[in-house]
Amino acid sequence: MNVHASALAKAHRFDEQTSAFAGDVLDDLSQHRKRLSPKYFYDAAGSELFEQITLLPEYYPTRTELGILRDRCGAISAILPEGAALVEFGAGATTKVRLLLNECAFGAYVPVDISGDFLKAQADALRQDFPALAVYPVTADFTAPFALPEALADLPKVGFFPGSTLGNFEPHEACGFLRSARDILGRDAQMVIGVDLEKDERVLYEAYNDKAGVTARFNLNVLHRINRELGGNFDLSAFIHRAIYNRDRHRIEMHLISRMAQTVRVLGHSFSFRAGESIHTENSYKYSIERFTAMARGSGWTPRESWTDAAGMFSVHALVASD
Ligand code: AVJ
To answer: ∠ at Cα 289 (70, 66), nearest 5°?
Structure first.
């Protein structure tokens, strides 16, 4: 926690998570280019909106990745060791991991997520459906080093990082994450990771500017969360959602654009906006197979196999820890 956040925590009796949120929001809105971290999209309402996004006709990543996992789970499980501990970085819907658990005899499943409540509910559901599977939920921020449960010390390790969540990281952060995952999982570990691919810009544009406006609501919800949790006074109707493809940096950018000159207050601080000024809320990097595998090689992993759908929209990679 930074100094700012710990002072806020005291003054407002915030819990640790809310203090971190407060500190980040005040820092990020004080920047010359205002920004907010995409990790704050996922409160209960935001997680529900994201589930709706995954069902949109324009939003291809979730259903395409599920299709690859469904078609290739035989090939994927054939290269994974038997009885391994499957460590999932981030815990959303369990649909994807269930495909692997059905196909492959894992010794343990270790979902890792910052939100402990959701994690426990998810773990209970899996224990019901896979009574023989040992489930060890770990509450941790998986972007920082954390320890695996002692009981798993002797099992082979397989990391699982689906959903192209890697795309939210800056390239240097993505390398850092891969290196840290290699350290956490240890020697001889393997990793199964989903990565969204570069494609026709119109397809990308429509996936993040859906006709029903769900992505717009998802983006705007972070302002609602600031109002609710931090007592902000954002007028949501004074901002509009914008998503653009930044070709030079291979990424979709999401912004919230101020419709007018206005001043917003959060926790006793004022933030002035010019008409048309942006809050940059998310990057979603898109990779080529070659750029991703080169990055993996440079971050402690040897690419073993890559699978895509027939249209080459999305990719799933099996990596092996380099010595
Ligand atoms: C969950 C980060 C993979 O980047 O596509 C969906 C989040 N943002 N629509 C993505 C998201 C807008 C999503 N990830």
So the answer is: 15
